[in-house]
Amino acid sequence: MLADRLKLPLAPVGEATERPITVAIVAMGGQGGGVLTGWIVKLAENAGWIAQSTSVPGVAQRTGATIYYVEMMRASNGRKPILAQMPTPGDVDIVMASEFMEAGRSILRGIVTPDRTTLIASTHRSLTIGEKSAPGKGIADSPAVADAIGVTARQQIMFDMDALAVRNDSVISAAMFGALAGSGALPFGKEAYHAVIQGDGKGVAASIRTFDAAFDRTQAKPDALAEPSGGTLAVPVVPTHSADARLAPLLAHIHALPDMVRAMAYAGLQKVVDYQDIAYGREYLDLLADLHAVDRALDGGSQNYAFTTNGAKYLANAMTYDDVIRVADLKTRAARRDRIAREMGLKTDQILHTTEYMHPRMEEVTGMLPAGLGRWIKQSGGLYAWLDRRVSKGRRVRTYSLRWFLMLYVLGGMRGWRRGSLRHAEEVAHRDAWLADAKALARGNYALGVEVLKCRRLIKGYSDTHARGLSKFDRVMAEIRHVQRRPDAADWARRLRETAIKDAETGGLDGLIQTIRSFA
Amino acid sequence: MAERSFAREVEHLRLGEGDVFKGEAILAITKGLLQSGVSYVGGYQGSPISHLMDVLSDAKDVLDELGVNFQSSANESTAAAMLSASVMYPLRGAVAWKSTVGTNVASDALANLASGGVTGGAMVIVGEDYGEGSSIMQERTHAFAMKSQMWLLDPRPDHGAIVDLIEKGFQLSEASNTPVMLQVRVRTCHMHGSFTCKDNVKPAFTIGDALNNPRRDLSRIVLPPAAYEQEQEKITRRMPAAIDFVRDHKLNEFFGPEAGKVGIVLQGGMYNNVIRALQYLGLSDAYGNTQVPLYVMNVAYPMIDTEVAAFAAGKDAVLMVEEGQPEYLEQALNTVLRRRDINARVRGKDVLPMGGDYTAHVIMKGIQTFLEDHDSRLLGNRPPVPDAADILSDPRVEKLKSVVPGRPPGLCTGCPERPIFAAMKLVHEELGEHHVSADIGCHLFSILPPFNLGATTMGFGLGPASTSAFGGKGNKRSIAVMGDGGFWHNGLTSGIGNAVYNKHDGVFLIVDNFYSSATGGQDILSSRAENKDRSTNNPIIDAVKGVGAKWVREVDRTYDVGKMRATLKEALTTTQEGPKIIIASSECMLNKQRRVKPQVARRIKDGKRTVKERFGVDEDVCTGDHACIRLSGCPSLSVKQLDDPLRDDPVATIDNSCVACGNCGEVSEAAALCPSFYRAEVIHNPTGWDRFKEKLAMGIIRMLQGRRDTRRVAMEAA
Predict the structure, then answer these.
(1) Between B506 and which of A219, A281, B478, B641 could a Cys-Cys bridge form, CB atoms 3.0 to 4.6 Å apart?
(2) Is there a cis peptide before residue B450, judged by omega within 30 degrees of 0?
(3) Measured between beta carbons, which residues in chain A are less than 8 angstroms from residue B422?
(4) Boundaries of each Pyruvate/ketoisovalerate oxidoreductase catalytic domain copy (chain A) (predicted)?
(5) How far does the CA of residue B576 sit from the closest CA of chain A (Å)?
């Protein structure tokens, strides 16, 4: 059949090449996609073209992903072109994405194709609810989108249009309009774009400024734009001495460690000393030295001393557990107030206050008491419950009122008291058991020892979250002991930990444990 | 519409003969009604119809000049019943709503209206929310038109064509004594285009004339024996009259060559995409010069049998392009051709998909298959058609499928409904999961992450009614959610009244945010704004108590998560009989910001003491477990990766779009999550007393901070 057809003497029927210019704007609802669409329509109409836009705001107007579509064409002898209402895969000239993952979504729709599409995408991210609410790290992989843009777009214009707009006191639509003008993808001059913005009447100066900045940024030569690439991680140089003489011996300890461990150990030491004092820093280094001794004995050098490095990291986190003293200390620091003032853009004739939302429980109070007393109260159920009813409630703390500040300041200054507290005793016991486990398991299986150190990541947060973290840690550790003799024990430990991190809502840990129990 | 002005759009309604209108089609439709001399307009808001309602709400002056009675109806049923003004009197009237949901609600009144018939032109504008981006079930209004025998207009997506068909539609309605429906799809409603206007027409016969000269005619009322006669009248008189009118006034259009082996029959609304599809296949230019004969049904019901028969006669095959299912038109077409023994093959849903959007791409593939089977010569040398299949199969693009996360809609920044669902989630953690029946409205976003609350939705205002089966005592109680919009739409009777009467033991949560928010922030009975044209400030609690509810609690600030949680808990555990009703009230933040933002800016500019607030997170205190986000989902609350080698997980962060509603602080306090959140308050134009207190306190604070800083061991940054 086909062969018969092909033998027919056929000429092309009709003129199919004359097409409208097609523009798709992929955006999030409420992000100004409608404004940009309106501008593009106006731009074409001002030039005497026929332009048609369509959209489906619907429910997506509440922060969901949505798409606006514009077609434009000249009238011919008074006849208006018939314009389509939806983008056709493979037939879109310009795609504008106001967010980077939305650019990725447009590629998946097939509307970005190498033969015709100019892709104008802002590289900033507005995280989706899934990415934000994922326990642990859930942020999508932007480089994958960049890779796909590389093979799909005929022309690509990518930069952080949101930041550029913010720098110029305007909104992203103005920056994107500037990028569109700069791309030269539409047959209209810069003045025509200016005229559209000026016709708008609102925030014109800032919009024009933003438009121009984006226009210039788009037209600049690529090499002039080389942004500092995030790929090359400069290894921080660890100082060899300090202005504070008391630190000298500690620094010497750090420099006795292998190269690849030092940066992490320094960061850990910084955190521990900042949390408590120099003596606590020394304790940290001593514990780290223990870990390193095991590491050396196990020929850790061949593993880049992963055991020591992870030890340096997670030990520092374990030693700087979050307690009332820590929170009070952080909240009362001068640097903290300065940071907030900066973020709020505080001017000299304005006054800044902050209100903290705190909910102390008796648990935190007993944690602060000397270990013996704390234990006694905890065990006397009636008294504990009575006290808890008085303590445990939400408190709005006016940080920079004298009364509250003094209270927080005194609490934050109780660092000397901390090492005798019940909480500290509990934390030390937990920490030591964990380190002992890590060392013991590392002797049988180096990688497994490293994984055990990393399990410390499970413990975080305050109150219930903290308790849940502890229980997850215990369950993961129990399973690890269960599989410790398997050659792939480290893999299972890693899977257990990753699953436990993501377990906040899904209950995936139970399933994995069942799987493990089915064979081990 | 309390907080948004449509003054600019209202100006469009004043355009006169020869002026060119440029704007959205839904506004062109509004203008078309005024050009047709309507006496009254009603309707219920909802995408894509909201704009029509909003603009008319703001257009009192224009409407008064023309003597048009406009009202925002209580629901679609009310709107449909409003058309009864056209039964006895030569009054033209129109009502509008989102379809098919609104038509479902209206169909009782519509069926009565259609049975008795009309004297004045009666038109229902339905915004057909079908296909991508739709927020409702996927059905067709077409079925309603057929069952009640109302004529269904489906104009080409062109402002001029639509406006023209509105005018002709009223004439058709009057000529056939039948109400008509004008169906416009969402994309068409939101389509920007232009048309040349005519002057608005002031109705010759007014509402006042009707009231002053009341008329009745028993044969127009649906009661036996009139009801039987009305059915016969539909068949023998009204339908033939309609067919004659449609044919005589050429409401349907023919394009392209008269003769041909094949032809395409299409709904008017499909025209633009069919032309584009033909263009891809080299069979039309961009201006609609098609080489394939087209029969465009701007009237989708009834089918004009003589026209379609003439079109198909002598052709080998015709293709029916009909969006949605079932394929009513294809069936009708087959009936027409078989009855006349015309042997053109009818193709349709066998080469086009049964359901879903008929995009240019989808139609192109259907036409391609159709032509290959029946007239492959037309496909010529087959120039390449747009195709993204190759690039979509590139591994780097394939990989994106697992990378690009879904972006479901959610509650706005600062939404007062967020703390309600956060509280409900906390209650579930304490008392276990409960059956939650959701409703239509912004609060329906509770079914999505991060709240994941709500098992069913059964229609607007029917959240409470849909727990009817679960009202028995002694079980875990059901929770029904309903918004203020749904409450006044029908929920007061269908939900609350029903629960009181049947002694339902469950919990009924009414979310009161002072507006019909999901549809754009229109005023309703319980809105707190003063509205000079409407009666507002009628509290929900009075209505609820009025129908006999006893256990009623009000939470007047939904952001009080602790109180919200305690109230829910009490409702779920109290021993009191009957429905437990909670009214949770706080103003819709979107509308509040529209109202308050300019006020705040003015106060600051005028030198008045003003406090501006925003929330923040102390990143050193945040441990990155994201529990707060799982109880919020606020767009301004996100996460960021810190430049700290000791930290694995990103920490919470709040951007400057925060409106300081307080949800994150309240939630972390109520759930005892963590002390990371703070509210920052900046006092603009502080008073002398403010300054004095500040100077005193900060003097001491700075001194203490300095003291501690010097004692702290400072390690240099690496």
Answers:
(1) B478
(2) yes
(3) none
(4) 29-215
(5) 27
Residues B695-704 have pLDDT tens digits of 999 999 999 9
Q: Cα-flanking dihedrals φ and ψ of residue B514, to 5°?
A: 75, 0
Decide if A461 and B674 are in contact by the 8 Å CB cutoff: yes
| Three-state secondary structure call for residue A156 | strand
Evaluate if residue A13 carries a pLDDT over 50: no
Per-residue confidence at A231, pLDDT binned at 50, 70, 90?
very low
Residues of B in contact with A79 (CB under 8 A): 287-288
List of chain B residues whose C-beta atoms are within 8 Å of the C-beta of residue A463: 672-674
Q: Give B177 to chain A, closest Cα distance, Å.
A: 34
8 Å CB contact of A104 and B403: yes
* Pair B86, B200 in one domain: yes
CATH of the domain at B25: 3.40.50.970
Q: Is position B479 within any domain?
A: yes
Given a cut of 90, whether residue A302 has pLDDT beyond it is yes
Residue A503 in contact with residue A509, Cβ under 8 Å? yes
Check whether A14 has a pLDDT greater than 50. Answer: no
Backbone angles phi and psi of B698, in degrees to 5 = -70, -25
So what's the pLDDT on residue A85?
A: 94
Distance (Å) from the alpha carbon of A129 to chain B's nearest alpha carbon: 6
Q: Of B53, B114, B51, which Cα lies nearest the Cα of B81?
A: B114
Residue B35: count other Cβ atoms within 10 Å of its Cβ.
21
Give me the number of domains chain B comprises. Answer: 4
Nearest chain B alpha carbon to A73: B286
Residue A283 C-beta-side C-alpha neighbours within 13 Å: 18
Same-domain pairing of B522 and B654: no
Selected residue of B192, B451, B457 to mutate for chain A interface (largest A Cβ count, 10 A): B192
Question: Does A343 contact B273 at a Cβ distance shorter than 8 Å?
Answer: no
User: Quick one: B162 and B287 in the same domain?
Assistant: no
Instruction: Report all structural domains of chain A as residue ranges with CATH numbers, in order of start.
Output: 21-225 (3.40.920.10), 245-319 (no CATH), 325-401 (no CATH), 424-519 (no CATH)
pLDDT tens digit string along B222-258? Answer: 999 999 999 999 999 999 999 999 999 999 999 999 9
Range of B342's domain?
Answer: 253-389
Instruction: Kindly provide the residue ranges of all beta strands, DSSP E only, lying in B243-368, ordered along the sequence.
Output: 253-255, 262-267, 294-297, 299-301, 317-321, 345-347
Partners of B669 on chain A (C-beta within 8 Å) are: 357-359, 394-395
pLDDT for B91-124, tens place per residue?
Answer: 999 999 999 999 999 999 999 999 999 999 999 9
Give, in order, the Cα–Cα distances in Å from B392 to each of A112, A138, B86, B705. 10, 25, 55, 60
Beta bridge partners of B320: B265
**Contact criterion met (CB < 8 Å) for B409 and A102:** no
Cross-chain residue pair A131–B639, CB shorter than 8 Å:
yes
**B186, B278, B279: best to mutate for the A interface, most A CBs within 10 A:** B279
pLDDT tens-place string over residues B279-298 = 999 999 999 999 999 999 99
Q: pTM of the full predicted structure?
A: 0.93
From the list A76, A127, A334, which residue is nearest B639 (CB)?
Answer: A127
CA distance A379 to A43: 76
The arithmetic mean of pLDDT across residues A484-496, rounded, is 94
Under a CB-based contact definition with an 8 Å cutoff, are residues B478 and B453 in contact? no
Q: Which of A56, A144, A269 has its CB closest to that of B186? A: A56
How far apart, in whole angstroms, are the C-alpha atoms of residue A26 and residue A512?
39
CB proximity list for A495: less than 8 A, separation 6 or greater: A512
Residue (of A339, A330, A323, A350) closest to A462 by Cα position: A323
Residues of B in contact with A59 (CB under 8 A): 133, 135, 409
Q: Which residues of B touch A343 (CB under 8 A)?
A: 616, 680
